[in-house]
Every structure is written in C-alpha cells, then in structure tokens.
C-alpha cells in the first residue's frame, strides 16, 4: 500500500499531470498520510510485542516480592497468553493502537519537519544541523503528537489488560474500544480522557528524542564522515541506532505511563493507586527497586528496532519514489 502511494506520486511527477507545480503539490499532499500508513502497517506486525510489554510492566505492581504471577519473561508471557487466552488475544486492543497512529505518526513527522524548516530555517542545501536544534525538534514533535493522541493510548492500555483481568476472575472492565471511551468519559469527563497524559507525553518526548533526533543526527554523521552515499545501508545503520536509543530513553516513562493508565479509579475518576506520575515513580522504585523502571525493555527494544528500521526504510523509499527530498 505504501509503495503504491509512492509510485502514484512518482508517476504524477514524471508527467501524468501537465505541469511541475501539480507534482509538487501532490508530493506535499502525501507528506501526511505516508508516515501514517507506514506506521499502521508496522503497528499490525509488531503489536503483540506491545501487548507483551504492557503485561510485563504491570506484573508484580507495588509488590516487593514481585507478586505471584504466572508470567515471568517475555517468551513465557507470549506463550501464556496464547495458551490461556488464545492467539488472537495477542492483538487485543490493536484497533485503539490504529486510532492512536492515525493522529500520532503523521503529526510527529510533520511537526518535526516544520520546526526544522520554518522555525530553525534549515534549507535543503544545509548538510549540518546542530544536535541541540534536532533534539528540541524531536522532543517538541513527540510531546505534541502524543498529547493529542493520549486518549487512544489510555484505551489501548485498558484493552490490553482486559484478557488478563478476566483470566484472574475479575469482572470485565470494558467491552471494546467504544465502550472503553464511553466509560472513561462517564467517570472522568474530558479530563479523564487525558489521564496519564503527563507520563505519556514524557515518554513520547524521550522516544522521539531517541528516534527522530538520533536517526537525523546519525544519518548526517555517517554521510559527512564516510564516503557512503545516501542509500539503504546508511538508512539501516541510522535506524538501528535510533531504535536502541529510543528504547533506552523511553522505557522508564513507559512503565510509569502504563501503570497510571491501568490503575483502578474511584467514582470521581481519581486514581486509587497513584495520585500523579511522580507518585507512581516513587512508589515503584520504593517497593520494587530501580530495575522495575526497565520492566518490558526487551520487547520494547525488539519492537522499536524493527519498527524504526522498517519505518525509516519505507519512508525514505517513498520519499524517493515521490521525487521529494530525502529526510
């Protein structure tokens, strides 16, 4: 699908339309849906790792001994879900993840490029872009995009834990994405939809600092200090760096975000376990130790590495097919 979009734009540029301005406009038109479509495809493929990550981050919550849980590691969690809940449960909540990416992915890419080109005035001929500017663009783009998409993330986390709750004998909390949105709205109103948005935005800012900024910096560094052309090898090297840095920087905030979003609420929509992300951080470290902040790191890294690699390779290739400037 992504390649068809790129090929279509490439054909327009080569002459199906009568003039060059139309081709340029067409490329600009596709600058928003291309990263979104690419992210949706990658989300579908890597989603089980996201669900496993969430389960790992919740297990042993606020228990000094880690709690008596049937799942321990990533593989045991995956096999346990498959055996006890069914293979299809590995994709539970994927529609909420799709809703998130419909907003998040296009927004972060477009915001990053807009900040670079409009605010910091980077021209197409500039080979060097200061790291601090790139970092500021990455943090800002990730924070803005995630804040807008935070309600979908909240519902996704609740849906991901629903199978586990029912397996443990708890009554159903939500029955699908629309029921989840409705219950959040009824208990917390508009503010309830953005519950957990603070650690969520913090995580997204750090992840995009690791992903967008690292990819941008690593790619330019490789091109500037080697004789390699701007090709797939450079994209692979830069995206591998981006995936590892993003996972390393984002995991602690991801753990806090998941726990705040998954906690039970009182009748007024207030959390029963944590009053804020700082409170969650303190309680997690106090009861489980610092290592608890990196629960789920392996599936996060395993998800982000191919995610970053496949996203950037696809995105760069589509830009090439469209005749647009490389990232």
TrEMBL record:
Keywords from the named record: Membrane, Mitochondrion, Mitochondrion inner membrane, Repeat, Transmembrane, Transmembrane helix, Transport
Membrane disposition: Multi-pass membrane protein
Location, primary (coarse class): mitochondrion
Cellular compartments per GO CC: mitochondrial inner membrane
Compartmental location: Mitochondrion inner membrane
Classification via Gene3D superfamilies: Mitochondrial carrier domain
Pfam family, one: Mito_carr
Solcar repeat windows: 26-118, 129-221, 230-321
Gene Ontology BP term (one): transmembrane transport
InterPro entries: MCP (IPR002067), MCP_dom_sf (IPR023395), MCP_transmembrane (IPR018108), Mito_Metabolite_Transporter (IPR050391)
PROSITE patterns: SOLCAR
Family recorded in the similarity comment: Belongs to the mitochondrial carrier (TC 2.A.29) family.
Protein name: Mitochondrial uncoupling protein 4
Organism field: Dendroctonus ponderosae
């Amino acid at each position: 699908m992504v390649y068809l979009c790129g090929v279509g734009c490439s054909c327009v540029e080569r002459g199906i339309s009568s003039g060059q301005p139309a081709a340029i406009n067409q490329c600009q038109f596709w600058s928003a849906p291309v990263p979104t479509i690419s992210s949706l495809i990658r989300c579908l493929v890597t989603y089980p790792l996201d669900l496993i990550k969430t389960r790992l981050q919740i297990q042993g919550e606020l228990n000094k001994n880690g709690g008596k849980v049937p799942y321990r590691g990533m593989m045991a969690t995956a096999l346990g879900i498959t055996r006890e809940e069914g293979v299809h449960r590995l994709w539970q909540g994927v529609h909420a993840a799709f809703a998130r990416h419909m907003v998040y992915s296009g927004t972060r890419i477009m915001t990053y490029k807009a900040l670079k080109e409009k605010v910091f005035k980077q021209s197409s001929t500039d080979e060097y872009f200061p790291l601090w500017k790139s970092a500021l663009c990455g943090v800002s783009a990730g924070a803005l995009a995630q804040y807008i998409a935070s309600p979908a993330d909240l519902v996704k986390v609740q849906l991901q834990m629903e199978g586990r709750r029912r397996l443990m004998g708890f009554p159903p909390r939500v029955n699908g994405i629309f029921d989840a949105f409705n219950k959040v709205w009824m208990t917390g109103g508009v503010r309830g939809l953005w519950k957990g948005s603070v650690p969520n935005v913090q995580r997204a800012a750090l992840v995009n600092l690791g992903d967008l900024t690292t990819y941008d910096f690593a790619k330019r560094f490789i091109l500037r200090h080697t004789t390699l052309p701007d090709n797939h090898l450079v994209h692979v090297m830069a995206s591998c760096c981006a995936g590892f840095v993003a996972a390393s920087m984002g995991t602690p905030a991801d753990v806090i975000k998941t726990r705040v979003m998954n906690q039970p609420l009182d009748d007024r929509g207030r959390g029963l376990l944590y009053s804020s992300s700082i409170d969650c951080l303190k309680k997690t470290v106090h009861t489980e130790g610092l290592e608890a902040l990196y629960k789920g790191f392996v599936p996060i890294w395993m998800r982000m590495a191919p995610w970053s690699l496949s996203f950037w390779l696809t995105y760069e290739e589509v830009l090439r097919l469209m005749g647009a400037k490389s990232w």
